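dude i think i finally got it to work??
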Amino acid sequence: MLRLEHPRCRSHASHREGRTKHRFASFSFRSWLAVTLGVILGWEPSAGSDLWGSRPNIVLMLADDLGIGDIGCYGNSTLRTPNIDRLAAEGVRLTQHIAAASVCTPSRAAFLTGRYPVRSGMVSSDGYRVLQWAAVSGGLPTNETTFAKILKDHGYATGLIGKWHLGLSCEHRDDHCHHPLRHGFDHFYGLPLSMMGDCVPGGLSEKRAGLQRRLESYALVAALAALTLAAGAASRLLPGSWVPAVGATLAAALLSAASYFLGALIVHADCFLMRNHEVTQQPMHFPRTTALVLQEASAFIRRNREGPFLLVLSFLHVHTPLLSTEKFLGRSRHGPYGDCVEEMDWMVGQILDTLDTEGLTHDSLVYFTSDHGGSLEAQLGREQHGGWNGIYKGKARRSPDVLPPPVLWDLRKLSPLSSHKDLSPTSPFGTP
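look at this
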């Protein structure tokens, strides 16, 4: 969702209402978006235009795995999301807005660059469509042009708080070739990889359970080999010494130990927080994470209140494991997932309050969306840990969004087909 407020906008809110439909039908959504972004980047509007020429602050809020059917302004009457609903009431709600992919890494690459993720190599052909480990060498290439780079070149302070999931390093662990600071951001605080079910031992697993089954199978084979070799050596039915039997026994013990400690190793290796290039918390301490993310986002706004600034607040909510603090546990009618959605909505309200407190509300453009639809398959027993995509079944690519209308029109809903890629200045200006 995106809210654009300026004193001049409100005075034209209902101007020429009778001509709205006719004019909108002949107006290209992408052309309008290009004009809007031109204003943001400081380009002068044409003579007689009502588009305001100042450069607004930009706050982009990106949820993780939020279903289009999970917030009030998209029809959910059982989850309380008053702050997101307020954005929709004050802005424009997009009803046909499509994510570039149904999983995180390629969707976020397209969001930042305005290009299909296959063009930047962010879609794999082997079935692993997201980065699975913080230590992998893959990531968003540094030669990609992100909207953060463009805005930074136009004098914006740029910050990303929260989830990145577009790679970290290449040749060695400290080169940080895919780090957010290599892609136009001045400041980064958050999780280089992603919230994974494996970040909380004993919960939903995205890779630990499969790896443990494999290690346990290998351990069983090694143990059977050790018994066979030992029996053969003891009975002298097999030639040779006891060395192979001892080696197989050690292999079985090591594989069993690796399976037992795998969960803790994954938590330590993948679930950590960074501030710029420094690791600040490894592993993450989940009860404090929400407060730390809000603290960093609010501090960035206050630090750059003279503007202009770009803040990308990439929530860790509502991906599994569901990150709800004690204050929100048990509050919703939809279990842990509903609690997590309502806490995220509260966080949105905190950011809006910070803008109000700093006197930046009328000079700021605010956009809220999800990287893609809800994860229906995220279930623990009979308990649903993933979102609901409304009438759209499966791993949906539809995401809840709001964009501001041209300032002369009073529109509350836009239905033309659009995409996350359209948000980036690289998309309407010729980067396919």
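The radius of gyration is 25 Å.
im so relieved honestly
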